[in-house]
From TrEMBL, chain A:
One of its GO terms (biological process) is siderophore-iron import into cell. GO terms for molecular function: transmembrane transporter activity. This is Iron ABC transporter permease. It is a multi-pass membrane protein. InterPro entries: ABC_BtuC-like (IPR037294), ABC_transptr_permease_BtuC (IPR000522). Its main location: membrane. Keywords: Cell membrane, Membrane, Transmembrane, Transmembrane helix, Transport.
Automatic annotation (TrEMBL), chain B:
Transmembrane segments: none annotated. Gene3D superfamilies: P-loop containing nucleotide triphosphate hydrolases. InterPro entries: AAA+_ATPase (IPR003593), ABC_transporter-like_ATP-bd (IPR003439), ABC_transporter-like_CS (IPR017871), P-loop_NTPase (IPR027417), Siderophore_ABC-ATPase (IPR051535). The keyword Heme does not apply. It is a peripheral membrane protein. GO terms for cellular component: plasma membrane. It comes from Lysinibacillus macroides. GO terms for molecular function: ATP binding; ATP hydrolysis activity. Its main location: membrane. Keywords: ATP-binding, Cell membrane, Ion transport, Iron, Iron transport, Membrane, Nucleotide-binding, Transport. GO terms for biological process: iron ion transport. This is Iron ABC transporter ATP-binding protein. Residues 4-240 form the ABC transporter domain.
UniProtKB/TrEMBL annotation, chain C:
The chain crosses the membrane at residues 26-48, 81-98, 110-129, 135-156, 168-192, 212-234, 255-282, 294-315, 327-344. Pfam families: FecCD (PF01032). SUPFAM superfamilies: ABC transporter involved in vitamin B12 uptake, BtuC. One of its GO terms (cellular component) is plasma membrane. PANTHER family: FERRIC ENTEROBACTIN TRANSPORT SYSTEM PERMEASE PROTEIN, SIDEROPHORE TRANSPORT SYSTEM PERMEASE PROTEIN YFIZ-RELATED. One of its GO terms (biological process) is siderophore-iron import into cell. It is found in: Cell membrane. Belongs to the binding-protein-dependent transport system permease family. FecCD subfamily. It is a multi-pass membrane protein. This is Ferrichrome ABC transporter permease. The keyword Iron-sulfur does not apply. One of its GO terms (molecular function) is transmembrane transporter activity.
Length: 344, 264, 350
């Protein structure tokens, strides 16, 4: 990337940012290999490669292609979706605490799942394909509710009102969930609680297919809006002065954030923390420019969830720790360390 | 010749009107300044011109076209706005922030083109920020930061600059520094500059055209010699001003002043 | 065009004087106290065995142990309703202090890691010491709340720039996420999540005199502390620079504020769990009535917080007898619409 208009140190920053992004990619690949190798049946890296190129035996193929690979792909995709969603929300609200949770996405999805489980306590096999759909509907419905409630004629949406409304609705939904919790049988409760804690349980290509289109459409869309996010970050007045139609841009970006997080949450449950910390960490690594921030946050999110899922699968074999818990246990101390170290 | 025409404008928040039926024509290629006491509606007027606030009534015309009907990006290509309280997010460098000024000229994916770089580098040079261009904004002093924001507005490449109190929080020398820079931009490049200033003497020294507001109305407008009179200052600010002549601009300035209430 | 420095500070003070309403404060306090007493009487008289308000009164004044009604009042209903009042008052005052100190309208005691800390410790107790008596559970919850606060406050103060409100908020969120995840992990692994939910749903129903005896001196002292501190919190709510300019030792005020919040919210959270909404909405309500002076906001929050929880507990008992509806759900049920209304109407006030 040589560009005669950039000074030497700007080119250095650019190079550094590219190195960061490449490093993250490498980390994901390494974790991928480790993850392949983790589980009840071990596959060595060589076996993984051989199987990937069609040289493995039937059992290896089954494990790799039908169990591990879809799960790994989902983990990465979910992480990316949540991280980018969080980056969008932090960008447009200028609030460091914004994450997909403020749009009620986690709460809405959780409530939908819980309602279903408590009124149709079916066997575990039946709702597997229905649950993500329900969760997505719940998430979308809650987001629309919050948006409508914080919309005011002539003024549109202000980020502050959006956050306040989101907090209130999420609190209301949580308390409804408390009431429902008490009605559940212990088995159903355990299922719902695991779901809420956030775990990549839908390890199946169908989930990949359900999730992938959202990310394929929305991630490039959001990336193309990098410049708009940069401008929105400067505050309302400046953004208008620079010619951004902020009301329309906000609406599209919010919709994209809801789509990304809703699709992710519907297959993963509540791994909300990724959406909060991945953008923060990315900002520390590559700065506030969204052209770099968004890809870095996406890769970090993917890496975090994949690592968390891998660890969660292997630490307490044969039982699993939900990835959401591992993410928080690993991510929070690092986040706190950054917080203590930084001046601003 | 006027570049901006403010025509019977009324602005207010819900029920209370802050600006009442105000009309004025702002001349092209000149420095125009709005003065007036706190709460007189000058910032509100500027925000309406900057299309941040909706008007209850009337219209603002940019070269004869109603500003609220123009595409916001088109307006941004003609007119740059520097709000009073501009805050940059953490982690941006000077260069990055200034490059954001190219936003209205970029389309689609928006990589910076040759022309964009030329504007950015020109803005950096003209504001004297060359040595700071790779520093993070947080590391700059107040005066330097204000220069960065002005540079961003300059990189926008507009012939009109609208600034809301660009010298607030700066010391004497840095205030002058900013105003001289704006004067240079006006003289050498013929840019139209519209701003709100609190310092009457600065307003008089650097403006071609002044507007004095009080209680949401335009009290008087014209050249500094017409506006900066003892009588006008009494009407607008309720002060008894001792007038003198600025040795640099030969415009009237206020040497010192007393409140009428105290004098009696 | 007010600015936050110099003359602007004085403007803020003027503003404050204009916007605080002592007369409304007095009226609000009197109405609140009457309402609270009435609610307490109501709550005692209703229940599985209905007791007339007159009997309630005589039971309090001339308690005679032979009468069953007097015993019910004395042993079950009175401690419960007093517990509810204490919890509500504590949450509300803690929330008011937090909002004033951080100047953040969304702040409540949960932000300090209190709720997550208490919930985590409770999960530990349920997982490893399932036979612990109620009293010890409360104590350990309190320890957990303290742990949360110490981590958040420690991280905030250790950092280079000191404990800014922003850093407090972020550290609080991260610590809450960490402790919450650990608690959740324990709950899942040991399958105690639902037991925990039932424990919290119980609300103040298990309150006994012995608990009140331990809790109330602490809460009382903390309340007095909060009222003494209220003037300083008013100044702090105008911004740190102004507070320093007015001769306030903000470091000291902050530490005392934290300690008071820990005692109040820690005690409350260990009894009923995270009923965070009380601490969030009551201070807003108080500010709406009495203006921006914390000398009025804090006493008002105290009374109305108590009133809200007493009423919520009352409704929780009678809505679906003999089952109890979780009190947190009821408070949210009342609080959410109110909060939405505020968010929609105000914007600036919030």
């Amino acid at each position: 990337m040589s560009n005669s208009f950039l000074t030497a140190s700007q080119q250095k920053t650019r190079r550094k940012n590219f190195v960061t992004i490449v490093t993250l990619l490498v980390l994901i690949v390494i974790t991928f290999v480790i993850s392949m190798n983790t589980g009840v049946i071990k596959l060595t890296p060589m076996e993984v490669f051989r199987t990937l190129f069609g040289q493995g035996d039937a059992q290896q193929q089954l494990i790799l292609f039908e169990f591990r690979l879809p799960r790994i792909v989902i983990a990465v995709l979910v992480g990316m979706g949540l991280a980018v969603s969080g980056a969008i929300l932090q960008g447009i609200s200028k609030n460091a605490l914004a994450d997909p949770g403020i749009l009620g996405i986690n709460a809405g999805a959780g409530l939908a799942v819980m309602l279903y489980i408590s009124f149709f306590p079916t066997t575990k096999a039946a709702p597997v394909y229905l649950l993500p759909v329900l969760a997505f509907v719940g998430a979308g419905f809650t987001a629309i509710l919050i948006y409508t409630l914080s919309y005011r004629r002539h003024e549109g949406i202000t980020p502050m009102r959006l956050i306040l409304t989101g907090v209130a609705i999420a609190a209301g939904i949580s308390s409804a969930m408390i009431v429902l919790t008490l009605r559940l049988t212990p088995e159903n409760y355990q299922f719902v609680a695991t779901w809420l804690a956030g775990s990549i349980w839908g390890s199946n290509w169908r989930f990949v297919l359900a999730l992938l289109p959202w990310l394929l459409i929305l991630l490039p869309f959001v990336y193309a809006k990098s410049r708009v996010l940069n401008i929105l970050n400067l505050g309302e007045l400046t953004a208008i002065g620079l010619g951004a139609s902020i009301e329309r841009e906000r609406r599209w970006l919010l919709a994209a954030a809801v789509g990304l997080a809703g699709a992710s949450v519907s297959v993963s449950g509540g791994i909300g923390f990724v959406g909060l910390i991945a953008p923060h960490l990315a900002r520390q690594l590559v700065g506030a420019k969204h052209q770099f921030l968004l890809p870095t946050a996406a890769l970090l999110g993917g890496f975090l969830v994949l690592m968390a899922d891998t660890l969660g699968r292997s630490l307490l074999e044969p039982s699993e720790i939900p990835a959401g818990i591992v993410v928080a246990v690993l991510g929070a101390p690092y986040f706190l360390y950054l917080l203590a170290r930084l001046k601003e | 010749m006027s570049v901006l025409e403010i025509d019977h404008v009324a602005i207010g928040y819900s029920s209370t009107l802050i600006v009442n039926d105000l009309s004025v024509e702002i001349p092209k290629g000149q420095i125009s300044t709005i003065i007036g006491p706190n709460g007189c509606g000058k910032s509100t007027l500027l925000k309406a011109v900057a299309r941040v606030l909706r008007m209850q009534n009337g219209a603002v015309y940019l070269d004869g076209k109603a500003i609220h009907q123009l595409k916001t990006k088109e307006v941004a290509k003609r007119m740059a706005i520097l709000p009073q309280t501009a805050t940059a997010p953490g982690g941006l460098t000077v260069f990055e922030l200034i490059s954001y000024g190219r936003f209205p000229h970029q389309a689609g994916f928006g990589t910076l083109r040759k022309e964009d770089y030329e504007y950015i580098h020109w803005a950096i040079d003209v504001t004297g920020l060359r040595e700071f261009s790779d520093r993070p904004i947080e590391a700059l002093s107040g005066g330097q930061r204000q220069r960065v924001w002005i540079a961003m507005a300059l990189a926008q490449g507009t012939d009109i600059l609208v600034l809301d109190e660009p010298t607030t929080y700066l010391d004497l020398a840095h205030q002058l520094d900013i105003l001289l820079l704006l004067q240079k931009l006006n003289k050498e490049e013929g840019r139209t500059i519209i701003m709100v200033l609190h310092d009457l003497n600065h307003a008089s020294r650097f403006s071609h055209f002044m507007m004095a507001m009080k209680g949401g109305n335009l009290v008087v407008n014209g050249s500094p010699k017409e506006v900066m009179t003892k009588e006008n200052l009494q009407t607008v600010f309720n002060i008894d001003a001792e007038m003198a002549v600025c040795p640099y601009s030969k415009n009237p300035i206020c040497l010192s002043y007393q409140l009428y209430d105290i004098k009696e | 065009m007010t600015t936050s420095t110099g003359v602007g500070g004085l403007n803020d003070l003027d503003e404050l004087q204009k916007r605080s309403h002592p007369i409304r404060g007095v009226v609000a306090l009197i109405v609140g106290v009457i309402g609270l007493l009435f609610a307490i009487g109501l709550s005692i008289s209703f229940g599985a065995a209905d007791i007339s308000l007159g009997t309630v009164w005589t039971a309090v004044i001339h308690f005679s142990p032979e009468l069953t009604t007097h015993q019910i009042i004395h042993d079950i209903r009175l401690p419960r309703v007093l517990g509810a009042a204490l919890v509500g008052a504590s949450f509300a005052v803690a929330g008011a202090i937090m909002q004033g100190m951080t100047r953040n309208p969304l702040a409540d005691s949960g932000l300090l890691g209190l709720n997550a800390g208490a919930a985590f410790m409770l999960a530990v107790c349920f997982a490893f010491f399932p036979s612990l008596p109620y009293m010890y559970l409360i104590l350990w919850s309190f320890v957990g709340a303290g742990l949360g606060v110490v981590i958040v406050y420690g991280i905030g103060s250790l950092s280079k720039g000191g404990l800014t409100p922003m850093r407090l908020v972020l550290a609080g969120a991260a610590v809450s996420a960490l402790l919450g995840a650990l608690g959740e992990g324990l709950a899942l692994y040991y399958r105690i999540g639902q037991d925990l939910a039932f424990w919290y749903a119980g609300g103040v129903s298990g309150t006994k005199w012995s608990h009140l005896q331990i809790l109330s001196p602490w809460i009382l002292v903390a309340m007095i502390g909060a009222i003494i501190l209220s003037r300083s919190i008013t100044l702090l709510s105008l911004g740190e620079e102004i507070a320093i300019g007015l001769g306030q030792r903000i470091g000291v005020v902050k530490i005392w504020g934290m300690i008071i919040v820990l005692i109040l919210a820690g005690a409350a959270v260990s009894v009923v769990g995270a009923v965070g909404f009380v601490g969030l909405i009551i201070p807003h309500l108080a500010r709406y009535i009495v203006g921006h002076d914390y000398r009025w906001i804090i006493p008002c929050s105290l009374i109305y917080g108590a009133l809200l929880v007493v009423l919520a507990d009352f409704v929780a008992r009678i809505i679906n007898p003999p089952y109890e509806t979780p009190i947190g759900a009821l408070i949210a049920f009342i609080g959410v619409p109110f909060f939405l209304y505020l968010a929609r109407k105000g914007g600036k006030e919030l």
